[in-house]
Amino acid sequence: MSSFEYRKNLNTNVGECKWMALSGVRECNFNFETVIERATSKNDDVVLLPQGTKLYNATQILSNDWFRTRYPSNTENGGVWFTSTLDHAKNISYYTHILEYTTKEDLILLYIHNLKKYGDVKTRGYEFVRKHYRDIFFHIQETTGYKIQGYIGCNECEIFIENSQLPKTLEKIPTVAFQRSMKYID
Question: What is residue 1's predicted lDDT score, i.e. its pLDDT?
Answer without folding.
Answer: 47
